[in-house]
Amino acid sequence: MNKIKVITGLMFSVLIATIFTQSCTTSKMIEQKSGAQLWGENCIRCHNMPSPADFTDVQWATIGLHMQDRVNLTDAEAKKIVDFMKSAN
């Protein structure tokens, strides 16, 4: 009985450590990506590349907020994408 508890505890600890390590690695990878990379990975799936001049900076910010909710982007990802579109304007 004690062996089962010890093994179960060890397995649970390994699982938690793996999840924590995975989430930290994913966060660091996202932080390193540029707005252009994030746009290419997320927006291009459904959209052709609009001309950045098609929208004002305010409109890009609004579009970013709208799409952040629809695509489930983090605040940092949405900001990088919007900044990328504004900078190309």
Description:
The radius of gyration is 20 Å and the shape is rod-shaped. The protein has helices spanning 2-32, 35-42, 57-71, 75-87. With 89 residues, the chain is mainly alpha-helical. Helix 3 (57-71) runs antiparallel to helix 4. It is built from four helices and no strands. The chain starts with a helix and ends with a helix.
Summarize the model shown.
With 89 residues, the chain is mainly α. The chain is built from four helices and no strands.
CATH fold-type name of the largest domain: Cytochrome Bc1 Complex, Chain D, domain 2
Radius of gyration: 20 Å
Distance between the termini: 67 Å
Count the helices. How many? 4
Determine the mean pLDDT: 81
Q: What is the tally of beta strands?
A: 0
Strand-residue proportion = under 5%
Order of helices and strands: HHHH
What shape does the CA trace take? rod-shaped
CATH C-level class of the largest domain is: Mainly Alpha
Give me the CATH architecture of the largest domain, please. Answer: Orthogonal Bundle
Could you give a short account of the major beta sheet? none
How many structural units, i.e. domains?
A: 2
Quickly give the structural class.
mainly alpha
